[in-house]
Amino acid sequence: MRRIHKRVVSISGDLGSGKSSVSRLLADKLGWKYYSTGMAQRKIATEMGITTGELNRLSLSDISVDAKIDAVFKNPPWGDCPCVIDSRLAFYFLPNSFKVCLLVDPQIAAERIFHDMKRKGEAKYRTIKQAKEACAQRRALELARFMQNYNLDITNLNQFDLVIDTTNLSVEEVCDKIIRHLPFNV
User: How far is 102 from 26, CA to CA, in rounded Å?
Assistant: First the structure.
């Protein structure tokens, strides 16, 4: 039986599934630290003067991009504090975390992304259709990148302790579901 580190919850999932919103609220509800590798990725993209989509494309030919993002797991800024980590690959780098994967219907994801005015470091879309196409392209790039750089298929849901389809759930409902499934008392 796999030992679960009772102080770390890693949340992965589809674009627009609510990873960041769920992670922030969950950390708040638990009184834990919150960390997002998306923040690190957006910071790197901004420093380079490109979008996160362009950064993803660049990372296919320049492994140093992922090395910069992955470095956070070698010396985690959250230290030994209990934390919730919003990261597509945290489950891979932190195998003893409680690993959650959030799924969402692509149309709903595109609508969420299109209407989210707080998204930083990403292109603004003129239509929901444009957002949906961009999400599909980004997902394809990430699937290829993760396979190429880590030999990792993130679509294999057997890698997770809990999988939740957020299509018809609120952020609050998703958090409550995660809390109910935690293998330890909070």
Answer: 13
Q: Crossing angle of helices 37-48/63-74, nearest 10°?
A: 140
Residue 186 resides in a domain: no
Stretch 132-136: mean pLDDT, rounded?
Answer: 91
Number of separate domains in the chain: 1
Q: Does 157 fall in a domain?
A: yes
pLDDT tens-digit map of 71-122? 777 666 666 789 999 988 889 988 889 999 999 999 999 999 888 766 554 5
Please name the amino acid found at residue 51: T
Judge whether 185 lies within some domain: no
Q: What is the DSSP letter of 153?
A: -
- Do the beta carbons of residue 150 and residue 91 sit within 8 Å? no
Q: Say what the pTM is.
A: 0.83
**Structural domain boundaries enclosing 34:** 8-180
β-sheet bridge partners, residue 86: 11, 36
3-state secondary structure of 91: helix
Task: Compute the distance between CA of residue 166 and CA of residue 100 in angstroms, rounded to an integer.
Answer: 12
